Amino acid sequence: MTVYIEATGNVNTDLLSAINNMIFLNGLLFSLKHYLFQLYHFLRPGTPKTALKHDL
C-alpha cells in the first residue's frame, strides 16, 4: 500500500482517508461475497427456495 504525502505535510488526513477507503472497500467486498454466497445457496438445486436476505 502506497501512502502519498503532500508537500504541505498534511499526513494525518491522507492516512485517515486511505484507512477510510480501505474500510469502505473491505465492507463492500464483504457485502458482495455475502450476497454471492446467499445467491449460490439460493440457486443450488435441492435447497428450499427461501427469500434472499441482504443487509447493506
Question: How would you characterize this protein structure?
Answer:
The protein is mostly helical and 56 residues long. The protein has one domain (1-56). It is 59% helix and 0% strand. It is built from one helix and no strands.
> How much helical structure, as a percent, in the residues?
55-70%
Give me the strand/helix succession.
Answer: H
Beta-sheet strand percentage?
A: under 5%
Number of strands: 0
How large is the count of helical segments? 1
Major sheet attributes: none
Category by helix and strand content: mainly alpha
N-to-C CA distance: 27 Å
- Please tell me the overall pLDDT: 72
Q: Structurally, how many domains make up the residues?
A: 1
Instruction: Give the quaternary arrangement of the chains.
Output: single chain
Key features of this structure:
single chain, 56 residues, mainly alpha, 1 helix
Topology diagram in text:
Layout: H1 11-43
Kindly summarize this structure in a few lines.
The protein has 56 residues and is mainly alpha-helical. It contains 1 helix and no strands. The longest helix has 33 residues.
